[in-house]
Amino acid sequence: MSAESAKKNKINVVNLPVIGMTCANCAATIERTLTKRVSGVISTSVNLAAETATVEYDPSIVTLETLAEAVDRAGYTLVLPRDGDSIGDEEQIARETELRRERLALVIGVLFTVPLFVLSMARDFSFLGP
């Protein structure tokens, strides 16, 4: 993009938290989704370690909500600031929600695994007799 066209079209750069990334493939999927499937996005850089996405886009073509919808369709969550809240507040709320969901999954997994383990090992520990 030339300097003249960049002056005509205002380009925004935003750094937003992403929830749900676990590997480099997740980061690549988000980059590919935003760059190739959303018109108006000029470039995307996803940092797995920081769990953030830096997006350079043309606000006359695409909105932040459109970016969030595209990332959501890919299976991740792009945290956008709400009116009056800072991005840090929204990120904290999203991460706490994710942590609660993961704890619930752990508890459910343990509740089903422990009885199965006890039943499968009962004979080895002589709980059922010889």
Description:
- This protein has 130 residues and is an alpha+beta fold.
- It folds into two domains: 1-80, Alpha-Beta Plaits; 83-130.
- It is built from four helices and four strands, in the order H-E-H-E-E-H-E-H.
- Strands 2-3-1-4 form a four-stranded antiparallel beta sheet, sandwiched between helices.
- Strand 2 and strand 3 form a beta hairpin.
- The model has no long low-confidence stretch (mean pLDDT 84).
Fold blueprint:
Elements: H1 3-8, E1 12-19, H2 24-37, E2 41-47, E3 52-57, H3 64-73, E4 77-78, H4 87-121
Antiparallel strand pairs: 1-3, 1-4, 2-3
Distinctive features:
Alpha-Beta Plaits; 4 strands; 130 residues; alpha+beta; single chain; 2 domains; 4 helices
SS-derived structural category: alpha+beta
CATH class of the largest domain: Alpha Beta
**SSE order:** HEHEEHEH
Distance between the termini: 79 Å
Overall strand count: 4
Overall helicity: 40-55%
Radius of gyration: 22 Å
Q: In short, what is this structure?
A:
This protein is an alpha+beta fold. The protein has helices spanning about 5-10, 25-35, 65-75, 85-120, and strands at about 10-20, 40-45, 50-55, 75-80. Strand 2 and strand 3 (about 50-55) form a beta hairpin.
